[in-house]
């Protein structure tokens, strides 16, 4: 019995000693170790989150950079194409202006030459007519015949419109040379009586008709040109 008590006492002493000097520090060490492991795991988790966030941010920065580069390239391409188109349009406009100016200058020279030839051509015709009728025409009569030859207006009337029935909203009058304003007014008045006052009347020049005028209303043409007269004369002589 005494031996058993000694064993129990020894066990209790050993238990107290181990608890005080071994188990306590060991438990504290394990707790500290667990805390360090937990902290390391938490730090690792935060580091992983930071890495993922950094990668996402880097991807976003790269995507933004690519988008910005694409925008810069697109803008540069657009500006270059726009500039090229502007240059082409400017060149085409300048070409058209040069052609228009050249055509106008050529037309002006042709009209000037025709104006200079107007009295000469008519004088030849009048001289021939004078020889035929065996009379000399005075200056006033000569000028009247010249105007009549080119305008088709005689004694205030447009001769080719006499007896013509015309209808339409517009008329185009063609003459060999530019008509005088007074001649245009007489032609406009005569056409207004045929077509009505609201009709649009325009004038154009075609030296090929030689003299007289040609009036077109829609599909209808009234031809009183000198060329038409010559053509009819040639046909009658065949």
Give the key terms.
single chain, 238 residues, alpha+beta, four-stranded mixed beta sheet
List the helices and strands and how they pair.
Elements: H1 2-133, H2 139-151, E1 153-154, E2 157-158, E3 170-175, H3 181-195, E4 200-205, E5 213-217, E6 220-223, H4 226-237
Parallel strand pairs: 3-4
Antiparallel strand pairs: 1-2, 3-5, 5-6
Helix pairs in contact: 1-2
Show unreliable segments: 128-135
Strand order in the largest sheet: 4-3-5-6
CATH architecture term of the domain at 153-237: 2-Layer Sandwich
Instruction: Quote the distance from N terminus to C terminus.
Output: 174 Å
Molecular shape: rod-shaped
Question: What does this 3D model show about the protein?
Answer:
With 238 residues, the chain is an alpha+beta fold. The chain has a domain at 153-237: hypothetical protein PF0899 fold (2-Layer Sandwich). The longest helix is centred in the first third of the chain and has 132 residues, at 2-133. It is 72% helix and 11% strand. A hairpin with a 2-residue loop joins β5 and β6 (220-223). The protein starts with a helix and ends with a helix. α1 (2-133) packs antiparallel against α2. It has helices spanning 2-133, 139-151, 181-195, 226-237; strands spanning 153-154, 157-158, 170-175, 200-205, 213-217, 220-223. The model is unreliable at 128-135 (pLDDT under 50). It contains four helices and six strands; from the N terminus they run ααβββαβββα. A four-stranded mixed β-sheet has the order 4-3-5-6, covered by helices on one side.
């Amino acid at each position: 019995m005494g031996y058993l008590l000694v064993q129990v006492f020894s066990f209790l002493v050993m238990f107290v000693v181990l608890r005080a000097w071994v188990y306590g520090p060991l438990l504290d060490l394990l707790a500290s170790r667990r805390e360090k492991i937990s902290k390391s795991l938490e730090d690792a988790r935060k580091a992983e989150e930071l890495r993922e966030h950094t990668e996402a941010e880097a991807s976003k920065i790269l995507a933004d950079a690519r988008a910005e580069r694409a925008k810069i390239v697109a803008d540069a391409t657009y500006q270059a194409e726009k500039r090229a188109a502007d240059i082409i349009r400017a060149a085409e406009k300048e070409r058209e202006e040069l052609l228009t100016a050249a055509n106008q200058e050529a037309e002006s020279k042709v009209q000037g030459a025709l104006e200079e030839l107007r009295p000469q051509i008519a004088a030849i015709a009048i001289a021939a007519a004078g020889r035929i009728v065996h009379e000399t025409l005075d200056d006033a009569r000569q000028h009247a015949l010249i105007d009549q030859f080119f305008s088709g207006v005689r004694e205030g009337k447009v001769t080719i419109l006499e007896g013509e029935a015309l209808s339409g909203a517009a008329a185009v009058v063609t003459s060999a040379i530019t008509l005088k304003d007074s001649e245009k007014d007489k032609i406009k008045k005569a056409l207004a009586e045929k077509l009505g006052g609201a009709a649009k009347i325009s004038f154009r020049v075609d030296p090929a008709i030689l003299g007289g005028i040609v009036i077109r209303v829609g599909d209808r043409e009234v031809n009183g040109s000198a060329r038409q007269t010559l053509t009819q004369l040639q046909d009658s002589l065949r």
